[in-house]
Here is the input.
Amino acid sequence: MLPPANQFNAPRNVPSPTLNHTPAQVKQSPVVHYTFLLIGFSLLVFVLHKLHDLFLPLIYAVLLSLLLMPLVTRLEAWKWPRMLAIATSILLVIIGLGLLFGFFGMQIVDLRSELPLIQEKLGVLFDQTQQQLALKFHFKPMNHEQVIDNTLDTLQKQGSKYVTSTLSTTLGVLSVVTLVPIYIFCFLYYRDHLRQFMFRFVEPDKRTTVLHTVDNIQSVVQGYMIGLLTVIAVVSVMNAVGLLLLGVKYALFFAVFASVLAVIPYIGITVGSIIPALITFVETGSVAHGLGVIGVFMFVQVISDNILAPLITASKVSLNPLTAIIALILGAQLWGTPGMILSVPLSAVIKVVLDANKGTEAWGFLLGDVGDGEATKKDPSDDRGFMARLWDQLRGKRPPVAPEPHLPPIPGTR
Here is the structure.
């Protein structure tokens, strides 16, 4: 018979049936937390960079689907079948892009016919400039034909690389052009199914918040895309008027070309001004005319970034300039030119997601556009028209903002 249990032979580390033993929660060190966060972010960037052929068409399709959503919804309200409404919307986009590329193609063909004359004038200007610099700095000028021959030799040496790069780019564009309409059709056709999936995936107490966030993302992207198209149309007219007044050849082509580059914020129109300024300089031989063309584009750029874009798109995409510039750089490093185009709408989506979570709301506020410590949230009672808001913007008058909510006092403070 075993002896009775006492303090020496009693079993140890056995939970008592009368006590509720819950495992102690291990507190994670902030260093470990941020280390794992940095590793996860690095892996995400690596995957996005390596699988850009997959993600880029998907992102473009999502943005265009959100842009076409109001049109599809309107057609469905008119008793159109969903498949027919979606196909009609996609067909309208394809027709619009076809007309735009057709216009560009005809203008490029006409411009190509004048390239020999432009090359000859450029050679004359090159020789004249070299002669003036040689007299001033006492060096032996180069013949422009020698420069052309050296350039052709370099192109021939690098020809195989250029051909390979061109074929790769062409195949990539064809794949995107083929896949994006298919993705758009699927997203629009199965949008209710995707919404139900999200509704089932989220916990019941968080469904309202998540669906509200999704609606905000849809509103932000739609507002940005529609506003961007409006800005492109207005900027095209302003560029065309300025170039026609200066007597620039192919003014409409260069005006629309530079305006389309406005999808790249802050630098798009500036980059689009280089080619027309160079051609104008070669045609006229006047530096003032070339600088005048650049001045027109720079003036339109200032008007677009400081007046048109804030009035048309800022109510939906309230990102501060620092955030937009950093997003442009990161987008260029990640996906090149397509990344620069997608940087602003994706940053706006990230801001909406951050604003929806209490733990990350401060980061969303950091990305947002603020002035003098006041949020740029529009006052709901402000029902002024576009011209009134434009006049206030020209006068430098701040629009009315919504009143800040009264926060309860912090306990322990006077």
